[in-house]
Amino acid sequence: MSTGNKNRFQFDGEEAVTGGFEQSPGFSAPADEHAPDIYYLDEPEMRFQRKSRMGWFILAGLLLILGSGVAFWYFKVYQDENTASDLNERFSRVDQEYRDRYFVPEEKVSSSLANAIDLYRSQESHQAKLAFEIFIDSSGTNQEKSIAEVFLGILAMERGRLTLAEHHFLRALRFTPQYLPALVNMAIVKRKAGDYEQAKKYAEQARDIAPREARVAALLGNILAESSDTEGAIDAYDTALQSDPHDATSHYNKGLTLLRAQRLDEAILSFSRAAERGDGRLQLLAHAQLAQIYVSRNQLELARHHLQKAVSIAPDNGKYYYNLGVVELRMGENQAAQHSFERALESGSNDIVIYRSLATAFENMQQPSRAIQALQRALYLNSADLPSLFALAGLYSRQKNLLQAEDVYKRIVNITPGDQNTEEALLRLAAVYTEMERHNDAIAILEKARTLNPNELRTYYVLGQVYDKAGQRHLALDAWKKAIALHEQSQVGGSTRPLSRAEERQLRLAIGATYVKEGAADLALREYRQIQAINQQNPPIQLDSALDLAFGDAYLMMRDYQNAIASLQKAVQDDRLKLPERKRAYIQLALAYQKQSQTVAGSLEEARAWANKAARLDPLDPEPQMMQAGILMETESLVDREKAIEVLQAVTQSDLDAPVASRAWNLLGLGYMQNGEYKRALQAFDYAVQLDPSNKEAYQNQRVAAKNYESSL
Question: In the structure, what pLDDT confidence band is assigned to residue 333 with cuts at 50, 70 and 90?
């Protein structure tokens, strides 16, 4: 078994794919024909790096603290992490490579060499190559052999084989020293290889031979531009344009140099001339560059104008329709943007990134089926494209198509060789199983992830979440403590990457919340004080409402109402506190004041005020209403008690979760019992116990009500 596959997992009923996913060879094709002309500002790397992967980790802990589910955050944050969060900022950047024109020999030649050249011009590359090689071995003149070698070099450049191209151009120079096409093309090869000194040397030799040749001057400009000699490059382009004012390539390259120098007004002029005088792809690129500049200046009407020109030149290329849609979206023309995105999908593209970007656009426009279609087209181009597979699985998850998401994540596991992508897919698959409440399956998957990387902190973190969701809090704590231990080991020289400040903070918040659930508030406070110390590090964090809320919970459990109130009031002073957290803080403040009302005068009125605030935030939430009713019953006012009973009767008739309904019936029973209505109280407590057999308070009240009812007979 090869090392590449030793850690791979194979799911039943699925065929494994051997080896890793394919990557394109690392060479630059000739710029004027085959180089890509678009790069995306927001495209994640093929390999999901740990730094970016931990983004969801932070939010996950916070959601756990706030009592939410374990799985949905996973997919939602993955979407934000890999798609640049705002579609309006997703504009494609045009290729920044200078255009070169190969120097193709144009001399009159013998018929046998002319036949080989005709094959080249007919794009019969293989037959042309054989014909040139046969000619070189013949008794032709050195001049014609130089021509044949130049053509062989150009063929090699077109295939991205720069070393072979250099070999042929050097042979051409040996046959005919100072042969201009060989010198020019040799300079291009050296420029593409990054050897600017040698490139400049060959270009200057060519200039000495042909000082007024526009192609030579333009090439020298390209070399000087890439050597950061901006002024020298512009002078060279101007020389080329003096010889040939209609040379669109020189206008384009001059514009690119000016663009890099941030001389945008001059760049606009050069690109405009290239667009006017060029044809085909160069004209297309000039319009795309102009659109890019106008987008950067927020001149969206002009950007749209040039993109409309681009789509008229290349109507079968979806990337320009996509860019047009992004601009229209930024202009607030959503219907036009949707039309452009639809055209982009219909036009097609051989660029997988376009389809991934379109998927994001469609999902943001509430068209998930079109987003799925876009990702499926990306996978038609490359069925093993990992970013597209991850994006598709995430999209299925967000649409609650969990079985499809499961299938895609299992597919990723099967085609990856036990690397970080395998681990990523396993963790996401565990999240899917958690969402499906298949906790045992989630735990089994996480155990597989641990075999890949036993020291991965994140695996233990997610494992703890699954255990917590499954109600196995002790196992959750064990997993999280393991994560903290690995973090502390890494800080003294371990091989595992330590947690960041934010990651450690969220992990300790999760541990503390579990301690509170288990009734160990003192241990929770220890974790929270550790977070306080983290927050004091540079740069210090002044406001941490999540921590203040957590302190409030722990102090409430310890019946330290004064500190609970201080922590919760500090939390609600944070303007950034979101509505669910603010409502919870108000309820907890009402509870703290209610609990201390026996010893601190005026506390019951404070409790009522905070409960009323919570109810105003969300009038349909039964929790604030139950809090209001409980406070009303403590005033010992008959009017207040009747009002509380009325509120609770309405609450118990609404659609509630069993534990909440149990608490509501228990409170209603207390109201009846205070009124001396023992039979009705006994019935209410019976309902409370039936709804939640673990409600100990309802059991106790049930016994008291039964005793009082018997005494009243």
Answer: very high
